[in-house]
Specification:
By secondary structure, this protein is of the alpha/beta class. Helices cover 30% and strands 21% of the residues. It folds into 2 domains: 2-237, Adenylosuccinate Synthetase, subunit A, domain 1 (Adenylosuccinate Synthetase, Chain A, domain 1, 3-Layer(aba) Sandwich), CATH 3.40.440; 241-401, Alpha-Beta Complex (Adenylosuccinate Synthetase, Chain A, domain 3), CATH 3.90.170.10. Helix 3 (109-119) crosses helix 4 (131-139). The longest helix has 17 residues, at 160-176. The protein binds inosinic acid.
Length: 408
């Protein structure tokens, strides 16, 4: 069975915890897009791991992890991460595989990335990890791939400076390089988890363009970037937070505003620890945007949702949700393509009573207070998609399962 997990908002939905949870029962975990711009924080057995490139399944000793065709890989960062894992006692050799068709991020791309952003008509606030430059080179058919580094003939043609850069990693990278489609065929019938990076609204095609990343965060990317054909995906799970956040620039209709929402932004940011895992930047925070969430569900064939950080609202007297975008005298119920339109809409905020008690120790839906159940049910009704899993704390155990994730 193949399950795809994607972010259904602007990234940082808490995918790391859920992927870690699903990975405990998976055979293989595949990252299918993005690069070191992503960041997962996982708390496992009391130790905190910050991963950028390596799929979170690495923490399970019998799981194979794969970096897919759709990724752009900073080789030095990858080996830095692996070394750190080794220091924390994680055995990775023989378990980490890299698609030989994945592109690599070269030194210098980061600087170019940041410089490009200052020259853009409207800077997007890139993480500066060279991701956009690597994808641009890929599209311009001027990129460098893993096969060019591990293949002797291609390697010899690289400039001396690039060979010097790759030399310390080349032997190990050669052992890790695979043909991903062949690998997938050999693993048919196993439990394979495809781990998305960023979120639907940062997807190059479906997101709030141009304020997006340059990879594919959408579920469809799991097929192409993960070595499958389009019929190879059995199930799609979308992860969203009980509220919304966004890092970097770009439209965010339900963002908290000081004049309207008092100190809510600071409050949620502190309670939810909303600081970027990659850059440490404070995340922008806002109400849960149901218009955007429904758009994500519809455009990605999401079968089930995973709601995270419900406990962050534990002490809220009232909880707001965005149920429409006011635009002139219309109320939009879907995300418009034009970024100018999206920037000028006014959110329709509806309020519900909060539950004002801690949820961290609840392990079933029935144990949740009525106000929390109502919040979940209202979301399901609006987006017409069931909420299968609810996370009420950062620890693995702080999770409510309504539908077993590895069932169809
Ligand atoms: P880039 O992918 O580094 O070029 O960044 C493009 C935009 O996507 C910026 O607004 C970033 O803040 C955002 N972004 C990239 N990766 C992530 C992520 O993993 N989580 C949240 N935002 C991200």
């Amino acid at each position: 069975m193949t399950t795809v997990v994607i972010g259904a908002q602007w990234g940082d939905e808490g995918k790391g915890k859920i992927v870690d949870f699903l990975a405990s029962q998976a055979d293989d975990i595949v990252r299918f897009s993005g690069g070191a711009n992503a960041g997962h924080t996982i708390v496992h057995g009391g130790t905190t791991y910050k991963l950028h490139l390596v799929p979170s399944g690495i923490l399970y000793p019998d799981t194979q992890v794969l970096l897919g065709v759709g990724m752009v890989i900073d080789v030095a960062s990858l080996f830095g991460e692996l070394e750190e894992l080794e220091q924390k006692g994680v055995r990775w050799r023989g378990r980490v595989h890299v698609s030989d068709r994945a592109h690599v991020v070269l030194p210098g791309y980061s600087e170019e990335d940041r410089e490009l952003d200052t020259k853009r008509r409207r800077p997007i606030g890139t993480t500066g990890r060279g991701i956009g430059v690597a994808y641009a080179r890929k599209a311009a058919r001027d990129g460098l791939r893993v096969c060019d580094v591990v293949d002797d003939l291609a390697y010899r043609e690289l400039p001396e400076s690039e060979r010097r850069y790759f030399e310390p990693y080349r032997d190990e990278l050669s052992r890790m390089a695979i043909d991903l489609s062949e690998y997938m065929i050999a693993r048919r019938g196993r439990r394979i988890l495809f781990e998305g990076a960023q979120g639907v609204l940062l997807d190059l095609d479906l997101g709030t363009y141009p304020f997006v990343s340059s990879g594919t965060s959408a579920a469809a990317g799991a097929a192409l970037g993960g070595g499958l054909g389009p019929r190879g995906i059995d199930r799609v799970l979308g992860v969203f937070k009980a509220y919304s956040t966004r890092v970097g620039n770009g439209p965010f209709p339900s963002e908290f505003r000081a004049d309207r929402d008092g100190g809510l932004e600071e409050h949620i940011r502190e309670r939810g620890a909303e600081y970027g895992a990659t850059t440490g930047r404070p995340r922008r925070c806002g109400y849960l945007d149901l218009v955007a969430l429904r758009y994500a569900c519809r455009s990605n064939s999401i079968d089930g949702l995973v709601m995270t950080k419900l406990d962050v609202y534990d002490d809220a007297g009232r909880i707001g949700v965005c149920t429409g975008y006011r635009y002139g005298n219309q109320t939009l119920k879907t995300v418009p393509a034009g970024v100018r339109t999206l920037e000028s809409v006014e959110p329709v905020i509806e309020e519900m009573p909060g539950w004002q008690e801690p949820l961290g120790d609840r392990r079933s839906f029935d144990e949740l207070p009525a106000a929390a159940r109502n919040y979940v049910q209202m979301i399901e009704d609006y987006v017409e998609t069931p909420v299968d899993i609810i996370s009420v704390g950062s620890d693995r155990s702080e999770t409510i399962i309504r539908k077993e994730p590895w069932t169809q």
